[in-house]
Amino acid sequence: MVGNVGVNRVRGNCLDFKNIRNLRQMVYQNPGGFEATQKGYFYQRAREQDIALARRTIQGQRFWPANFALWFFRPEGACPPTWYNQQNSGRFKKHCFFQPNAGDCPSIY
């Protein structure tokens, strides 16, 4: 799911993610990148299954609820219907995903 969000941010060139041209720029975007790059969460190598999933995502496979999502977060309780005016597209495990209106970001649809 997070992989879909990342790919969408690169493909989108819209809203908070203008001029993001590759995955490295997206991951390290500040503000708006992944907090794992700032808080030391990368303490172990990626597992083979995670690498395979990342490759599938980069090749264009999409997974609900992140198909068209640009944002995600882990709330304490239920997912709100919107987050910063973006529609909730669903929940996977503990994370909620949010997608823009197609008119605001047509290149991810």
TrEMBL record:
Q: Highest lineage ranks of the organism?
A: Bacteria, Bacillati, Bacillota, Bacilli, Bacillales
Q: Which residues form the Cell wall hydrolase SleB domain?
A: 1-98
Provide any one GO MF term from the record. Answer: hydrolase activity
The protein's UniProt keywords, in alphabetical order, are: Hydrolase
What is the species of this protein?
Bacillus cereus (strain Q1)
Supply the Pfam families for this chain. Answer: Hydrolase_2
Question: What InterPro entries does the entry give?
Answer: Cell_wall_hydrolase_SleB
Protein name stated in the entry: Cell wall hydrolase
